[in-house]
Amino acid sequence: xxxxxxxxxxxxxxxxxxxxxxxxxxxxxxxxxxxxxxxxxxxxxxxxxxxxxxxxxxxxxxxxxxxxxxxxxxxxxxxxxxxxxxxxxxxxxxxxxxxxxxxxxxxxxxxxxxxxxxxxxxxxxxxxxxxxxxxxxxxxxxxxxxxxxxxxxxxxxxxxxxxxxxxxxxxxxxxxxxxxxxxxxxxxxxxxxxxxxxxxxxxxxxxxxxxxxxxxxxxxxxxxxxxxxxxxxxxxxxxxxxxxxxxxxxxxxxxxxxxxxxxx
Length: 264
Ligand code: PGA
Known about the structure:
alpha/beta; 7-stranded parallel β-sheet; about 260 residues; single chain; 8 helices; Rossmann fold; 3-stranded antiparallel β-sheet; binds 2-phosphoglycolic acid
């Protein structure tokens, strides 16, 4: 696991975008797993800039979003579908047919079948090459709340009260926040060939600390990334505050850069 700590959010977002660009230049038909939330916004803005100013091409890219609230229509301003269109897709040359976001309006009786089909679609696309992740204050990835099976697949998940409270800031009232979601499972995420997890701000420091340096546990679903073969964690200083081995991560990130230069 490579842990890259940058001085602030903007710098972290820029470096994460360079990382995505590198993968995309090597594989123009990259299959990317995407996350919503405030954390990846800077990364998305930087990718948009790279598209507009440098001609970074997304025409052959396929995307799969991690999750969606159950019960929100795709045009609801708080739906993740709306978020992705506004904050990323409408500004890129991505083929709408290649965009996949769980549908929050599937009828309850059809949800099991729908979730199986979402997994099938990922497989049919050749699997996810690069999965972008944020992390919740309770250590969740996607909406895989504490206690989610580490082998879980795409399914309906009940949100924790903490997540509902955290997300209430985007709604006019806390009781408007849906209490169910459709989310890729932890097992689904782990099948991506590569994972990039981003976290910024002091409120994430504890979750980052236990996910990276604690034991692997379903109580902190992000900790499962310790079992993945190719993970890069992008942090700002504040999110790294509780890491005990920070000096080594900085040393290793620098050494890794030097090594890359030797190879090229
Ligand atoms: P945030 O959410 O990026 O808005 O902090 C992350 C998450 O809950 O997964």
